[in-house]
Structure formats: C-alpha cells, structure tokens
Design goal:
Layout lengths: L1 H24 L18 E4 L17 H7 L3 E8 L5 E4 L7 E4 H13 L6 E6 L6 H11 L21 H7 L3 E5 L11 E3 H4 E3 L26 E5 L3 E5 L9 H15 L1 E2 L5 E4 L4 H4 L9 H12 L5 E4 L7 H8 L3
Parallel strand pairs: 1-2, 1-13, 2-5, 5-6, 6-7, 8-9, 9-13
Antiparallel strand pairs: 2-3, 3-4, 10-12, 11-12
Helix pairs in contact: 3-4
Length: 332
C-alpha cells in the first residue's frame, strides 16, 4: 500500500511537471506572455496596403506578404475591387492600373503561412470601398480554406473586455481574425466583422511628418469608449501639385484624377496626387526618440485616449523599426 502511494504521488508529480513545462513552452505570436493577454489589449504593427509590393510610386510595401509575416507582422490591411473579368481582386484604387492578383491568391498565401506556424494569430483588415456583396468574400474565404480558421465571437459585436486571450484563440483553432471597413454583415458571413463596430481610426493621407494627429477620422462622430483604435502612421508626399487643370470638364477631370491616383498611389486633399513617402520610411518607422516616430505618436494618442492603439499601420514595414516597436509597445 505504501509503495502504491509513493508511485501514485510520483506519477502525479511528473504529470504536474509535464503540464507546467508545456505551459512554459507555449508561445503565442512568438512570446509566452501574450498567451494570457486579451486580443483587445495587444498592439499590432500592421502592413498598410500589404498586397501592393514593388518599387513603383503606387506601391506601399517593399517585401512580399509572406516576408511581412516572417518578419513579425501579424496585421495585414489591403483593399479589394472587382476587375474587368468580374474577379474579386486586390487593386489599388483601379484594377485596370494596379491589380495585385485575385483575393483568393492572397488568402491562400495567408493560409499557407498559418498552416506552417500553429502558434500564430493573424488579423486581416479588408477595404471594400465598392461595397461588394459580402457573400463574394465568403466564397473567397471558403475557396482558400481560411473560413475554417476564422474567429467567430459568441456575440456580435464583442465587448472590448470580452475578447479572448491569444492563447485561447490558438487553442480553439481560430487563428485568423477578419475585419472589413464597409459592407460586413455577420448574418451572412459570421467571421467577417464590421471594422467600425470594433475600431476607430486616426486620420490618414497625411503630409505632416510630425504626425501631430490623434483625432477620430472614421467612423464619423464616433465615441472612443469601448473601441480599439487604429493609428495610421504612414507618410505621403505630393507627386502632382494642383491635380488636373481647371479647364477640363468635370467628367473628364474625374476620369483623369482616377487614372492618376490609380497609377501613382492615392488622391490627397483637394486635387493633389500623393504617394507613399519611401525616402522617409526609415525615419517614420522609427520606434521612438524623435518627432514623427511611432513611439512619439503613440504617446500623443495614449495621452488623449488613456490606452495605446490596437494597431499601428505602416507603409514599408521592412524599413525602420516597426517590429521592434511592436515588442516595446507590448512590454515584451
């Protein structure tokens, strides 16, 4: 009887040690401490227009989506439009001028990466400026297999403090979180969430290198309470000053502006054509220590809202110290 008791106690001790070791070894997005932290209490560095990769004035990133994920980026933003072949594609303003390929290919890339990294959680934010029927996005997610990995909350919308921890999301096998700016409908596709039910955004298309801005830009008249927020931290520069000549008729003027913004990036305030400021990216994406850095803008916004942003969106995530800033902002 004594021997049995000793053996039982030894086995129990070994079991506890095994469980403790397993917990100690668990890492979520690369860090054990994130496993017990709520999703809504984590700051992610995000790749703005992540799919538009290259060295043309219209491109926002210098490395591929896979390379962005490999570097430590866990939040990917992009925009989709319907091209001339009626394919839902990742297009920068105009599919005729800047088409990064079908949405299904982009989602397939994310799926392949997640399959190879079982302890990682990735978030997608999709721009749907055309208000394309959400069912078409659902088809793309089903085609890629990502629908089976997508996070579905118990209630819609989920309260700020009700988000699960990163460890709970991983254990549930729902390691993809998806938001959409316009056109989301959880009654049709229950894993694509309305961005503005969960976030507000600071202004974008800024030409001010100091980023002295933390006001709520979208959604209009939103209250900050109960929402995470996206701090837009990507700098533009003027490519065309003054836009299309005034003597061009309105219809033609709009067409020319669309072409220019599709080729060169995005339309700014008024008729100015603005593009990503690659030459300033290293300075803009500095983790802190200077005016216009990530850390300096975070301090301004944290002072206003009493908490850090949930997302900091950057152009050219391979320039500067974005991933290091992510570590620092999360106290890792």
């Amino acid at each position: 009887m004594f021997r049995f008791s000793k053996c039982f106690m030894l086995l129990a001790s070994l079991s506890i040690l095994t469980i403790s070791t397993t917990l100690a070894q668990q890492r979520c997005n690369g860090h054990a401490s994130l496993c017990t932290r709520k999703y809504s209490n984590i700051t992610f560095i995000g790749a703005h227009d992540s799919a538009f990769v290259g060295d043309s004035p219209a491109d926002n990133q210098g490395i591929s989506v896979t390379a962005q994920l490999d570097s430590g980026i866990r939040f990917l933003q992009s925009q989709a439009h319907t091209n001339s072949f009626e394919t839902l594609s990742l297009c920068h303003t105009s599919c005729f001028l800047n088409d990064a390929g079908p949405l299904t290919e982009f989602l397939g890339t994310v799926k392949s990466w997640l399959d190879g990294h079982p302890d990682e959680v990735v978030t997608l934010l999709l721009g749907n400026g055309d208000r394309t029927d959400i069912a078409r996005y659902g088809e793309a997610f089903r085609s890629s297999g990502l629908d089976k990995m997508a996070f579905i909350p118990a209630t819609h919308p989920l309260a700020f403090d009700a988000w699960p921890t990163l460890g709970e999301v991983i254990d549930a096998g729902t390691r993809l979180v998806v938001f959409m700016d316009y056109g989301a409908d959880v009654n049709k596709v229950d894993y694509i969430h309305d961005e503005f039910a969960y976030y507000f955004e600071t202004p974008f298309n800024t030409l001010d290198p100091t980023f002295n801005q933390c006001s709520i830009d979208r959604p209009p008249n939103a209250k900050p309470e109960g929402r995470m927020y996206i701090m837009n931290h990507f700098l533009d520069k003027k490519l065309v000053d003054g836009g299309v000549p005034e003597d061009v008729e309105e219809q033609g003027k709009g067409m020319l502006e669309d072409i220019a913004s599709g080729i060169f990036g995005r339309r700014g305030l008024g008729d100015e054509i603005v593009v990503p400021f690659l030459e300033k990216a290293e300075e803009t994406n500095a983790k802190g220590g200077g005016e216009g850095s990530i850390g300096t803008q975070v301090e301004k916004c944290e002072g206003l809202y009493g908490r850090r942003p949930g997302v900091v969106l950057l152009d050219f995530v391979d320039e500067g110290e974005g991933v290091e800033a992510q570590r620092v902002l999360n106290g890792l």
